[in-house]
Design brief:
Blueprint (H helix, E strand, L loop, with lengths): L1 H5 L17 H6 L1 H5 L5 H13 L3 H18 L6 H17 L1
Length: about 100
């Protein structure tokens, strides 16, 4: 999906100047940083305005946000003790050989 955006084949439905003065490809490329609140205040404002007005980018943002929420709620499983032991043993074997 990202490569498709980078090719510039998606044009913002708003036409003309992109909402927030930031194009769709830039918004999509920075979605994870935006969601994780890792961007500077000016970029956050531009992306927020863009997402409020762009009918193509907002669903993508909404999906990514929901996906990350799902992973945080369901993505944690504990590693079986036997697997931990085998991994540790393998590391020790490789270190002794090397």
């Amino acid at each position: 999906m990202t490569a498709f955006w980078k090719l510039g084949k998606w044009k913002c439905e708003a036409g003309g100047t992109p909402p927030g003065d930031i194009d769709c490809a830039s918004v999509v490329a920075q979605l994870y940083e935006y969601i994780d609140e890792e961007l500077d205040e000016e970029t956050v404002k531009k992306i927020r305005v863009h997402l409020e007005l762009c009918k193509r980018c907002y669903p993508h943002y909404d999906f990514e946000k929901a996906f990350l929420r799902f992973l945080s709620e369901h993505g944690r499983i504990s590693t079986p003790p036997e697997l931990k032991r085998r991994i540790f043993q393998r590391i020790l074997e490789e270190e002794s050989q090397g």
